[in-house]
TrEMBL record:
Pfam families found in the cross-reference section: Aldedh
Keyword annotations from UniProtKB, A to Z: Oxidoreductase
Highest classification ranks of the organism: Bacteria, Bacillati, Actinomycetota, Actinomycetes, Kitasatosporales
Superkingdom classification of source: Bacteria
Keyword Hydrolase appears in the UniProt entry: no
Protein's UniProt name: Aldehyde dehydrogenase family protein
Annotated family: Belongs to the aldehyde dehydrogenase family.
Parts of the chain that traverse the membrane: none
GO molecular function, a single term: oxidoreductase activity, acting on the aldehyde or oxo group of donors, NAD or NADP as acceptor
Positions of the Aldehyde dehydrogenase domain: 13-483
């Protein structure tokens, strides 16, 4: 028997009026558990609980908030043995990825924002002499800018890293004194539901963290539209993000939107053997890291024509060397996609590219295995830079290789999509790469690496989103600035 979860509202499990829906293991196509179908009444109850808890939690001493988040990190780590298999089963991520990056990264984020809770929230401003006016008498005026909590934050998250993504939102929001209502992605919400009682055990007051779920868009839409939510933090597709932004705008709610991406990895003509090897390994992460289900993935590789054939050969060999299979097998590198619908969508892009004359040098055909929602590592060459496969987010293990002749052409192709989340430049001359980065309309640029820095501001431009989080920037994202002025 698989577990049937309730909604986590006001510190206790609430039976859903609309019943449950199955959460399916993408590798076995069997139920992992049953998630509750949230209704508008459940959303209203969660908002009431969060609003009631806000008054006390927002006034809690920062050191006390820090202690709660620290305990949450410890409890999460202690429960790895039971939580890692759950996360792995509902996401379809490989066991290696789940054990090393899904749960540990979530714990690290709790620890980081435990420290963030005690970061200074006041920016002192130098006193200014002000002349007398009809408004007030003159004098020396002092001032400060102080970060205050926003209020009730709706955190709506994506399916690729459910727990990591949610903690990345909830931890800085709670650190700043906000209360949270989480709405995980419908495909894999179970580990997020488990976070409710864990935070309660860590000492978080009832109502400060709530989790509602649903198999469709209705629950999230009700949460965004509810007048009791003050901010919406969303990670997911651009299409859904636009609808959320429109609804939130009617209530003038603060939004933080981390949306789609179509990352370009530009390999310049001066790339030596070492730099080219780095580029191949970096682009190969599209296949080897959660089957390409990551918005920052370098899914387009733009290679100077003098190196193009060499890069394509290396990438083809790389793709063919990766083991596709059962994600709980330690030899597996590429597991399934999250659902049959996503697999079919990815396959449709590959088939459309084939029909338009592109060449599939690796992958492209569904592996001969059942069950599971598998797509093999796929490399596409000969595609037009303006074609859908080269411009639209696919969110799967698919890379498009495009040649260029001049640096100007590379910049034009890189900037030609609607997205601007994460690009990469590979060059033997880091100074040249730095200068090129300034011409890319992208919120983030990696130079000779696809590694991340956890303290950088993270977010995109164009249709990749609005706002920045990460490091201390997340504390800014989940706070309002209040100016205080007084006579000196």
């Amino acid at each position: 028997m698989t577990k049937r979860y309730g909604l986590w509202i006001d510190g206790s499990w609430r039976a859903p009026a609309l019943g449950h829906y199955p959460v399916v293991n993408p590798a076995t196509e069997q139920p992992v558990g049953h998630a509750p179908e949230g209704a508008a009444a459940d959303v209203a109850a969660a908002v009431r609980a969060a609003r009631a808890a806000f008054e006390d939690w927002s006034r809690t001493e920062p050191r006390e908030r820090a202690a709660v988040l620290d305990r949450a990190a410890r409890l999460l780590t202690e429960r790895a043995r039971e939580l890692v298999p759950l996360i792995q089963a509902e996401t379809g991520a490989t066991l290696r990825l789940t054990a090393t990056m899904q749960l540990p990264t979530a714990a690290d984020r709790f620890r980081r924002y435990a420290r963030g809770a005690v970061e200074p929230a006041t920016v002192p401003l130098a006193p200014q002499p002000v002349k007398a006016s009809p408004l007030a008498s003159g004098g020396l005026i002092g001032a400060a800018a102080v970060r205050r909590p926003v209020g009730v934050v709706a955190c709506i998250t994506s399916y690729n890293f459910p727990l990591v993504n949610l903690v990345g939102k909830a931890a800085p929001a709670l650190a700043m004194g906000n209360t949270v209502i989480a709405k995980p992605a419908p495909q894999d919400p179970l580990s997020c539901l488990e976070l409710g009682p864990l935070l309660q055990e860590a000492g978080l007051p009832d109502g400060a963290f709530n989790v509602i779920t649903g198999s469709g868009a209705e629950t999230g839409a009700a949460l965004v539209a509810h007048p009791g939510t003050d901010m919406v933090s969303f990670t997911g597709s651009t299409e859904v993000g636009k609808r959320i932004a429109e609804a939130a705008g009617r209530g003038m709610k603060r939004t933080l939107m981390e949306l789609g991406g179509k990352g370009a990895a530009i390999v310049l003509d001066d790339a030596d053997e070492h730099t080219l090897a780095r580029a191949v390994a970096g682009v190969g992460s599209v296949w080897s890291f959660h089957s390409g289900q990551i918005c920052t993935a370098p899914t387009r590789v733009l290679v100077h024509r003098s190196l193009y054939e060499k890069a394509v050969a290396a990438l083809t060999d790389y793709a063919r060397s990766l083991t596709v299979g059962d994600p709980v097998d330690n030899s597996t590198v590429v597991g399934p996609l999250i659902s049959a619908a996503q697999r079919d969508r990815v396959e449709a892009y590959i088939e459309a590219a084939r029909k338009q004359g592109a060449r599939i040098t690796a992958g492209g055909r569904r592996p001969d295995r059942a069950p599971g929602f598998y797509v093999p590592p796929t490399l596409i060459t000969g595609a037009d830079a303006a074609s859908p496969v080269a411009r639209e987010e696919i969110f799967g293990p698919v890379v498009v290789a495009l040649p260029f002749d001049e640096e100007e052409e590379a910049v034009r192709i890189a900037n030609s999509t609607a997205y601007g989340l994460y690009d990469y430049v590979f060059s033997a001359d880091a100074g040249r790469a730095w200068a090129l980065a300034a011409r890319l309309r992208s919120g983030n640029v990696g130079i000779n690496t696809v590694q991340r820095h956890p303290e950088t501001p993270f977010g995109g431009c164009k249709e990749s989103g609005v706002g920045r989080d990460g490091g201390s920037f997340a504390l800014h994202a989940y706070s309002e600035l209040q100016s205080l002025v007084w006579p000196s």
